[in-house]
Amino acid sequence: MREKVAFIILGFATLLVVLPIILTIFYIVRNGIGSVTWEFITQPPRNGMKEGGILPAIIGTIVLIIGTMFFSLPLGILSAVYLVEYAKDNTFTRLIKLSVVNLSGVPSIVYGLFGFTLFVGFLRFGTSILAGSLTLAIMSLPVIITATKEALESVPYSFREISLSLGATKWQTVRYCVLPYAVPGILTGTVLSLSRAAGETAPILFTVAAFYLPRLPHSVFDQVMALPYHLYVISIHVPNMPTELKFATGFVLIVLVFLMNLVSIILRAHFRKKKLW
Amino acid sequence: MCRWEQALQKKISEHIIEACIRLSGFLVIAFVFLIFLFLLKDSLSLFGVYSLGQFLFGTNWLPVSEPPKFGMVPLLLGSIYVTVGAIVICVPIGVASAMFIAEVAPTSIKHILKALIEILAAIPSVVLGFIGIVWLGPFLRTALNLKTGMCGLTGSVLLAFMAMPTIISLSEDALVSVPKTFKEAAFGLGATRWQALWRIILPSASSGIIAGVMLGIGRVIGETMVVLMVTGNAPVIPVSILQPLRTLTATIAGEMGEAVSGSEHYFALFAVGMILFIITFLINFAAEVFLRKARK
Question: Which CATH architecture is the domain A55-272 placed in?
């Protein structure tokens, strides 16, 4: 009897977590989907953002995702390769591990401040795609490193021994006998971290985001609009903003982020099926 | 001769690649130091013209008054109020959900629940802030009969949800990794499932659960957009969580755009960033210590 009551309480707590998630999604979808027309996703905003679409914000977010990936993927993978394949158990290695833990805990707004002083100010990139991508890339590093590390560690040790015994060098072993088998894990982690970067607002506030810029970027030194920042701007700073457009923007942002998560889930499932050992 | 050249070339390229890999590892450390250095440099510029004591213990944050005052106590208290509120909401609910998912729910339901919690982790914070403005704020205002719905409590509730995925997944990991023999021994002595869960499994998993809670706290203190959007932006010493207040993070996000580069105000915001950096560093370090303990 007591057991039953206890389990019901636990179930109720779970419901308290799960139900709001479903309701939130449902609420955004129901109020947003009606205003998401072809025009909305293919036109720039007009009339002080109160009419028209959000194309520049969508393009801006996609550009930032690509820029972030460009910097964080090679750096993240190489660092993880170092930690798993090359590192000896010494102070330097421990310092890297501690740094990864520390980077994952730094608040996103502090990344924003850092990107602002280093990339925008000190390196003179200005408020630009380059500065924003670099800031987001450093923020995404810990997730990519952790995912890559786990993926590399799950490749059986015998693969390396065989490759080395056949006379391959260390890098050849890593390149041809370890990395290919770690690709699924790396991809899953990368897509997940990029989806998080796509939804972040605080790091891009002062490094790249433009309040209102109804044209598309021409170079990496341009500012861009971004979906999360746009949603923030129209919900706080634009008076008399039509509510449907706010919901529609939120809807597009959620769809983009969920699509990326879906890709990562499908990749994971697909590669798991093909796993050979 | 030709083979010898090839071998040399191979050796050189091997060295170059190894150097790149080592450099990447080094860069990760460098970023942490750079973040620290750049924050420190601009924070120290403030303390050349403004006293550290007044910054740390001053009770007024008036950046545009004459003379300006940069006392961070109201902001720190704002952060603490909102964080404590969030933790009070999310720790019991989160740990209970983790217990349900780990030990009670049948496998099929378990997968659905885990997927839903992954979805929650994926929702961008700005969307939750928006929900706070259009729905939760007005709802709490009428439900609790407040002057405004844009207050600490609205922020706490939303932040509690943002911390949920961290707390639930780490607690669940900790509960599942308790050796099966513990449970079997408890059953052998005549314990019910609930007794085994409550008296044996939960205490054994405590280190992992504490680590999850710590990381959740770190996430809540560092979260910016939700608190910027829903807590009412009032940099005054909060009397209760039902009033508008402002956190450390929201102050940086809200004022950086107006602060003139190189002004006292600008440096003061970096000093606030430095405080945040130190707080989250300590919390994450503590969480890591608990995680290591849990793994043993």
Answer: Orthogonal Bundle (1.10)
